[in-house]
Inverse folding.
């Protein structure tokens, strides 16, 4: 539990629930990002999996983004690229998975967490699932998750999130912009909707859903290369004097 986990469970209907957890507000260090990408990839290749529900443990935070402890430990551009490639691998695994992925968003999303919500095919959220792209506040930018977020909410809304990196947007804003497909007043209502849709999709035509997913993601075929190129930008910026100073200021605030 101290280092977090990724686990999956498939029920008799073919609903594969993938859950991640980290004690630091469900942030995702490199090891967990790798496990999450591999787990999603494995589910995508499993003939028994008809639909995937992606969720995190806990109540208040869906995902706080990348691990800050690992961010501050980066000492070379190679380490930076490897670090920022973690979310690229998760987003690409979600994109290429032939099954629909329903994201259960029970709490706040920050940075890479917004990217994961955006890469889901259908996101069902509860009140309080506010969002923020905080990358610029620590001297970098939402380069890796940017294509996924922009694809869902549009360029103008993505610009607003990326530029005003310290401002939270509430869950209603995220629903209105298209990041969330549904927004519910309570966790119970959210879970009821997740259960309903996942059951319905588990009994729908797998071939039809796979073809639909290809249609929905048309135009993203270059993301294997694009997201890694974006990771290289962040990997370079994280070593700059400005970013190092911004990170030190952020660390001081959180002590």
């Amino acid at each position: 539990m101290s280092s977090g986990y990724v686990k999956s469970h498939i029920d008799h209907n073919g609903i594969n629930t993938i859950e991640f957890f980290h004690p630091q507000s469900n942030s995702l260090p490199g090891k967990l990002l790798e496990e999450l990408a591999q787990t999603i990839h494995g589910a995508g290749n499993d003939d028994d999996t008809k639909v995937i529900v992606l969720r995190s443990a806990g109540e208040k935070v869906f995902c706080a983004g990348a691990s800050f402890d690992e961010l501050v430990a980066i000492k070379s551009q190679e380490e930076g690229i490897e670090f920022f490639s973690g979310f690229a691998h998760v987003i690409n695994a979600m994109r290429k998975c032939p099954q629909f992925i329903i994201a259960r968003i029970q709490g706040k999303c920050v940075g890479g967490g917004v990217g994961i919500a955006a890469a889901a095919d259908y996101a069902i959220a509860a009140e309080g699932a506010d969002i923020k792209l905080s990358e610029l506040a620590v001297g970098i930018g939402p380069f890796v998750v940017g294509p996924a977020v922009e694809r869902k909410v549009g360029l103008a809304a993505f610009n607003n999130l990326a530029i005003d990196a310290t401002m939270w947007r509430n869950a209603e804003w995220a629903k209105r912009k298209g990041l969330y497909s549904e927004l519910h007043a309570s966790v119970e209502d959210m879970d009821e909707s997740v259960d309903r849709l996942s059951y319905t999709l588990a009994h729908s035509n797998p071939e039809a859903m796979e073809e639909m997913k290809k249609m929905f993601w048309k135009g993203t075929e270059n993301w294997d290369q694009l997201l890694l190129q974006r990771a290289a930008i962040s990997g370079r910026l994280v070593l700059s004097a400005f970013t190092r100073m911004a990170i030190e200021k952020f660390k001081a605030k959180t002590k």
